[in-house]
Amino acid sequence: VRDFVGSFNFLGTVYQHSERRDRLGNWVPQDPSAAQLRQSLTEFAVLPLGSPFVRARTPIVRSLLLYGPRGSGKTMLVSALANETGALVLNLSPSNLVGKFAGKTGPTKLVHMAFLLAKAASLQPIIIYMDECEQIFAAGGGGKKGKAAAAANAEGPVRFKKDLLLYIKAALEPTDRVLVVGTTADPGAAEVKDLRNFFDKFLHVPYPDYASRVLLWKHALRSTIAAHAATLGLSTATTAAALAAASSSSSAASTAMASASQQQDRRREPLDISTLAHISEGYSSGSIVRAVESTLTPRRVECLEKRLLREEEFLGALSRQTATFADDHEKFKAFTAIITGLKDTRDKLRKAAADALNPDDKKDKAGGKGDKKGKKGKK
């Protein structure tokens, strides 16, 4: 779990007590930091799965949903949970079930076998993994479109929803070290009621903030350089010089990579990590890592001793990555407000405030209903 790179939100308390509102005047909760995600996963998943003592004495968490943009690290976190606990992973993702377990009894057979296997004490801990779970809990429609969608989903992932909702509550005991983990990049496509009935905890895996992006750039640069250096068989000195190019410390890099004359001609930091962190705002963690990997080719790593790494080298690779920060962020904020009940609370408060400001309107509505009932009685 510690490999999930990200920083602690040091201004979280200040933000929490400040009046931050969106364009509609709604208070907006802050996104969780990487440190908070690591802590929550440790409390909800790692400790209960790894220790029967903890599992039996803590509130049971049967299922967990990780939602966030593509490339934010959701699948990596599931792998980290399995690695930390030594858990067996049962992959029930829609992509893994295409064309399998057809017929009316097929979904029931699969779900029954999965939970029967999960309850085997000799195989626990077990993680039941569902990627793109919005396809399983897809929202249905009414009318002709709803009937057409139902016919199209007769052999689709939605057919597993009924049995999953039944088994998640009936099959697992508090002592079973089993956790169902779902991931989604489009939570709005799922039925909110079904998600609430199935998942016990919801964790938002957001875009990395500035502090996390700084750590992410450094980690991606160092790990990519070290991997290529090991493959190429570079010497220790050459590897150290290459790693110094990814450092924001000008003194360390100039000592390892530049001569005295070069230091006089070029007095600048080898790589401005802060600038890279600023221009990569709105990009997911995966986009940043892919930009680094496509820029730092084995040939480029070999040349780091002679040619320092520059910020503009990453611009082309970064521009080819997908960045939809504004649209996705609004989508995930709206889902967070719905799934946490914040939207319902806002609506109730606004309705109560409107009734308090206009008590006559409320009386008129009540009187109108009474008149209608009276007329019906006369008939």
Describe this protein's structure.
By secondary structure, this protein is of the alpha/beta class. The chain has 2 domains: about 10-205, P-loop containing nucleotide triphosphate hydrolases (Rossmann fold, 3-Layer(aba) Sandwich); about 210-320, no CATH class. It is built from 19 helices and 5 strands. It has helices at about 10-15, 35-50, 50-55, 75-85, 105-120, 145-150, 160-170, 190-200, 210-230, 235-245, 250-255, 260-265, 275-280, 285-295, 300, 315-320, 325-340, 340-355, 360-379; strands at about 65, 90, 125-130, 180-185, 200-205. A 5-stranded parallel sheet has the order 2-3-4-1-5, with helices on both faces. Helix 5 links the parallel strand 2 (about 90) and strand 3. Helix 9 packs across helix 13. The radius of gyration is 27 Å and the shape is globular.
Q: Give the class from helix and strand content and strand pairing.
A: alpha/beta
Order of H and E elements = HHHEHEHEHHEHEHHHHHHHHHHH
At the fourth level of CATH, the homologous superfamily of the largest domain is P-loop containing nucleotide triphosphate hydrolases
Mean pLDDT: 80
Approximate helicity band:
40-55%
CATH topology description of the largest domain: Rossmann fold
- Radius of gyration, taken over Cα atoms and rounded to an integer in Å: 27 Å
Please identify the oligomeric state.
Answer: single chain
The assigned CATH architecture of the largest domain is 3-Layer(aba) Sandwich
Biggest beta sheet summary? 5 strands, parallel
Beginning-to-end CA distance, first to last residue: 71 Å
In the CATH scheme, the class of the largest domain would be: Alpha Beta
Count every helix, treating DSSP H or I runs of 4 or more residues as helices: 19
Low-confidence stretches: 249-268
* Strand ordering within the main sheet: 2-3-4-1-5
